[in-house]
Specification:
The structure holds two protein chains of two kinds. Helix content of chain A is 0%, strand content 55%. Chain A is an all-beta fold. Chain B is mostly beta strands. Chain B is 0% helix and 45% strand. Chain B is built from no helices and nine strands. The relative contact order of chain B is 0.34. Classes of the chains: A mainly beta, B mainly beta.
């Protein structure tokens, strides 16, 4: 078990569907992250939130829409995805991005395995 | 951004020490060396990090070369549960270097 909880564990969606991935942590962390991982590849950073504000968007297509409603929750809204978006989506959190805490370890969830049909 | 180079794969026997190398010849003075591992069907897991001095924790030891251009993650007694992809990552002080950017990592196989 990890301290970062992601739901659902698995998701199958059609290209016209709208769905959301959810991530929750109760460690008091103020930075939260979305990563995407294709099979047999390393995770790739998508978004970073710091103090509930979007800090980094790694040129992710607009069909992925992140949301951070409060310091414990992070969502990823999905709309009009393509089959090539099928991947493991990983959420992570850390103490923060400020100079005093930027080097703190990231805590990852076990991901949502997304299949787009 | 500073990059790391790791062997694609390594094998170890159970209950023997494992030394996982990482080269980072373009490391800057403020870059920390981080190690994460990813077990099958799980998210990455933090292992250890350091700046200049060798570091030990309950999971592993990190040996950093004097010139900081390479480092070695040491698992003192490998178990079957240590079979994973091990990532060596540099984290810097500014800009995109602050983020955790994964390279291709080393797939460690532990033989019984």
């Amino acid at each position: 078990d990890t301290e970062v909880t992601q739901t659902p564990k698995h998701l199958v969606m059609g290209m016209t569907n709208k769905k959301s991935l959810k991530c929750e942590q109760h460690m008091g962390h103020r930075a939260m992250y979305w990563y995407k991982q294709k099979a047999k590849k390393p995770p790739e950073l998508m978004f970073v939130y710091s103090y509930e504000k979007l800090s980094i968007n790694e040129s992710v297509p607009s069909r992925f829409s992140p949301e951070c409603p409060n310091s414990s929750l992070l969502n990823l809204h999905l709309h009009a995805l393509q089959p090539e978006d099928s991947a493991l989506y990983l959420c992570a959190s850390s103490h923060g991005l400020r100079q005093s805490s930027y080097n703190s370890p990231l805590h990852f969830g076990n991901g949502t395995r997304l299949t787009v049909t | 951004d500073a990059k790391t180079t790791q062997p694609n794969s390594m094998e170890s026997n159970e209950e023997e020490p494992v030394h996982l190398p990482c080269n980072h010849s373009t490391i800057s003075g403020t870059d920390y060396i981080h190690w994460y591992r990813q077990l099958p069907s799980q998210g990455p897991e933090y292992v250890i990090h350091g700046l200049t001095s060798n570091v030990n924790n309950r999971m592993a030891s990190l040996a950093i070369a004097e010139d900081r251009k390479s480092s070695t993650l040491i698992l003192h007694r490998a178990t079957l549960r240590d079979a994973a992809v091990y990532y060596c990552i540099l984290r810097g002080l500014t800009g995109s270097a602050r983020q955790l950017t994964f390279g291709s990592g080393t797939q460690l196989t532990v033989l019984p």
